Amino acid sequence: MHRFLKNILIVSLFIIALHLIVGALADGSTDNFYLRFTSSKQNSLIIGTSRSAQGVHPNILDSVLNLGDINSIYNYSFSINNSSYGKEYYDAIKNKINEAGGNGLFIIAVDPWAISSDTTLQDNEIDIESVFHLMRYYNSYPNYEYLIKNYKKGWGNILLKRIESNILFRNRHSLGKINGSFTYLRKDGLLEIYTSMDSVYVRTNIQKKIRHYNSSMSKNRFSEFRFSYLRKTIQLLKNHGEVYLVRMPVHASLLKIENSFDPQFDERIINLANSTHVEYLNFVDDSTQYSYTDGNHLYIKDAKKYSIRLAERIKHSQSLTNKELN
Fold first, then answer.
1. How far apart are CA 15 and CA 87, in angstroms?
2. Residue ranges per domain, the chain?
3. Do residues 76 and 56 touch, judged by C-beta distance below 8 A?
4. CATH topology of domain 2-325
5. What mean pLDDT value characterizes the chain?
């Protein structure tokens, strides 16, 4: 019996040690969120859903706006199911901010979906499936809590994903010849999507996204709960630096759906910006100038072009503000 228990203990310790080692290998290939739970507290943040997670390049903003190492901006955007505005995302943002910082830059991406919710849910049921739900550690590396609670595959897949990602990345330029894609989460929080831009493949993806949004329209509505947390998020971030509300470009077919879903969206955001004394930068009129992987997300090259334009708009706004102060 003693030998049996000893063997069980040895096997258990071996399994635990193996998981600790494999967990320490988790990186940007593991999933689309993990690394954002391992980064340190930040002075500047990009906030939003997958549209900004893929579409706003932190390094471009850093360069154009001369943010420097201390205030370099970090992309803390996730996805519509995880980072629509609400208590879970608000608490995560609060935990990610460097409390000692006061000269940061905060970009809050907004769209009608990020302030809407399923009408069948009560406020206390919203976001209980979010990756933030019941999380305690937002800035730990490695973050075993995240892997235990949110990584649904066997941990051996972490190592396999690293190998697969290296192979795919080396062959990323040949993706145009096949219909498929893969993702990689950079250390600055940007989610890179390497995908085929074959016209038929892209058109199929856009049609899928249109069907998805039309389905969402039937059950979702503007949410006062989410809108109140968007306001709270603005107020929180204003204590630590400049805040800009940003509506990103989107494919014309999806913009039409958004405008039908919430015709008062822009008016609502303009009033919010005025009441909280922040600026609202709306880029939807420029939507035809960019290419999209599925209508909702900017193609990686166009995301760089958009990030330059966003940085230049912010720089121009800062210049006007400085003139007024002088």
1. 36
2. 2-325
3. no
4. Rossmann fold (3.40.50)
5. 90
